[in-house]
Write a structure and sequence with these properties.
This protein has helices at about 25-35, 50-65, 75-90, 115-140, 165-185, 205-210, 220-235, 245-255, 260-270, and strands spanning about 10, 15, 20, 40-45, 65-70, 95-100, 145-150, 190-200, 240. By secondary structure, the protein is of the alpha/beta class. The strands form 2 sheets. A 7-stranded parallel beta sheet has the order 5-4-1-6-7-8-9, with helices on both faces. Strands 2-3 form a two-stranded antiparallel ribbon. A hairpin with a 2-residue loop joins strand 2 and strand 3 (about 20).
Length: about 280
C-alpha cells in the first residue's frame, strides 16, 4: 500500500495475567511507534485501557500524531462488532488493521489445563477472525485496506515445547493464507493487502525470557522486530518472517523427510535443550 495513504492504523493487544502483550508495551507498542514515525494516526485496542492510554499519550507527545485508546476484549464477537461502529463513528476509516493480540504458553499438551487452552484459542485465533471479519467489510466498501496478523515462527515450524500455542499460530497462518486467496478470488487483491508475520522469540515478557534457558539463536528485541514488520508491510509482503532467513531455513528443512527434519531439530537446532538449565 502507498505509504502516503497510510493515515489510520488499528493495533490490538490483550492482557494476560496482568502483563500486557501489545500496545501497553512490547511488540504492539513498538509497532505503534514505528507506524507513527511514518505519520500514521493510531487506534489502540486493549483490555487494559490504562496501558493503552499511556501509549497513546506518548504517541501524541513524542510523535505528534492522533492516537485513540479503546477498551475491548477482542476475543468477544459482540465487543469487536461494537468496536468497529465506535471507531468509524468517532475516529474514521481504518486503513491498516494489525491483529496483535496474543497469549503465550509453554506447555506439553498433558500439562495444559482446559481454561488456558480455551483462552489461547479464543485470543490467538478467534480474535483474529472476529477483527478481520468486521473490519474487512468496511475495507471492501472503501476498496482499500491492509490486514496484518502477528503469528509466530511456531506457526510454520511446530514447537514441541508449546503444543497448543503452536497449534493456534498454525491456525493464524492458515487463516491468512485462505483470506489472501479469498480476496484474490473475489477480485479485491489489488485493493486489500494481507500480511502474516512470523517472528522468532521476542523479549516481550518475563515468562518468555525465563523459559528460554538455552535458545539456539539470540532473542529478538521488540524494536528490531517492529522495524522489520513495518518495512515488510510497506513492501506489501504476504508473509513476513523475522529474521528473514529463518523463513528460508524452515522451507528448506521441510523439503526433507520427517526423520531428516528430526535430526536437524536434535543436532543443529538442539530443541531438546531449549528449557535446560
Amino acid at each position: 500500500m502507498d505509504r502516503v495513504k497510510w493515515r489510520r492504523l488499528l493495533c490490538t493487544a490483550q492482557a494476560t495475567d496482568r502483563s500486557i502483550t501489545g500496545a501497553g508495551n512490547g511488540l504492539g507498542k513498538a509497532m505503534a511507534l514505528e507506524f507513527a514515525n511514518r505519520g500514521s494516526n493510531v487506534v489502540i485496542v486493549d483490555v487494559d485501557l490504562e496501558a493503552a492510554e499511556r501509549t497513546c499519550a506518548e504517541l501524541r507527545r513524542e510523535r505528534s500524531v492522533a492516537a485513540y485508546a479503546f477498551r475491548v476484549d477482542v476475543s468477544s464477537y459482540e465487543q469487536v462488532e461494537a468496536l468497529v461502529d465506535n471507531v468509524y463513528k468517532n475516529v474514521g476509516p481504518v486503513d491498516v488493521l494489525i491483529n496483535n493480540a496474543g497469549v503465550v504458553g509453554f506447555n506439553f499438551l498433558q500439562d495444559a489445563d482446559e481454561a488456558n487452552i480455551n483462552r489461547m484459542i479464543d485470543v490467538n485465533v478467534k480474535s483474529v477472525i472476529w477483527m478481520t471479519k468486521h473490519f474487512l467489510k468496511r475495507m471492501i466498501e472503501r476498496k482499500r485496506g491492509h490486514i496484518v496478523s502477528i503469528s509466530s515462527l511456531a506457526g510454520i515450524h511446530p514447537l514441541p515445547w508449546a503444543t497448543v500455542y503452536s497449534t493456534s499460530k498454525h491456525a493464524v497462518n492458515g487463516f491468512m493464507g485462505a483470506l489472501t486467496e479469498q480476496l484474490r478470488l473475489q477480485g479485491h487483491a489489488g485493493e486489500i493487502r494481507t500480511s502474516c508475520v512470523n517472528p522468532y522469540y521476542i523479549s516481550t515478557r518475563k515468562d518468555i525470557t525465563d523459559f528460554l534457558k538455552k535458545p539456539r539463536f539470540g532473542i529478538l528485541t521488540t524494536e528490531y522486530t517492529a522495524k522489520c514488520i513495518v518495512e515488510g508491510v510497506l513492501r506489501n509482503e504476504a508473509t513476513i518472517t523475522v529474521p528473514r532467513f529463518f523463513g528460508l531455513g524452515v522451507k528448506f528443512m521441510q523439503l526433507f523427510p520427517t526423520r531428516v527434519q528430526q535430526v536437524i531439530r536434535d543436532y543443529i537446532l538442539r530443541e531438546y535443550e531449549l528449557n535446560s538449565a
